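Hi W.,

Here's what went into the run:
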Amino acid sequence: MTPEDDKLQKLLRSLPVKMPDDAMAERIFSRAVMQPQRRPSGGLMLTRLFASLCSQWPEDMAVKAGALAAVAIITFSAGAYEAPAAQAEADINFVALAMGNMGGGMGGAL
Amino acid sequence: MQLHEQDDEALMKLVAGGHRLAFNCLLRRHLPRACAIASRVAGISEAEDIAQESFIKLWTHAPSWQPGKSKFTTWFYRIVMNTAIDRFRARKSAGTLDWDFADPEADTSQHLVHAEETRAIARAIAKLPEKQRVAILLCYRQERTNPEAAAIMGIHIKSLEGLLARARKALKEELKDYEL
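Here's what came out:
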């Protein structure tokens, strides 16, 4: 620090400031805690969850990769496997119905 | 571990959950410095209101505070600083800024010379552009390091150094009678 800086610091420190007392602290405390706290929205919480999963990737890669893999497995097991099964069932029903109609039609023709 | 032994970040996690005693602990710990910043930026008469508004924001926004994103002190003193700047602007535009940066209760009869010097410094600081004033008060009056002050102000350290250089030059010119 140069002598000029030192002098400036002394000058600035010589300026008086508001000194809080217990009564002031008490007033502020009682007014503040009367206010309701604002909870973050669900969307923000979800964003934070993903941000925390993706942050500092190299340091704890195994844990976070495991967590992401678990999310992926749950997602696929819930959606990817059921959807084809349901689709396949619908296809079978459609073919069966079509064959039935064909058989009926042919039977009628015969 | 007792509450008062815990660091700011640990207390803030409790405050986020609505812990009033933890909030009281943070309040008692940071009120003097919040008042000092508020006094210097917006004037002594505004200090209590600014401190109150800042601590109300601390309480209400605590659940949104993210521990890893920034230090508690950086986050909180930025709130104090912004609240104080808003007050200063409001007073300036309303024409109610009356150089109350000096202590109105000071005994000027006993410390006439000192009081005059104090008034001159206060006036010189109040004349500085907003960012220069904040930079010089954080670094010289609040004894913050340059990186800390830059983080509180949300600017790059090079910008802060530029502001400090310009503020020092302006103060030197304004206070040449006091051999700065």
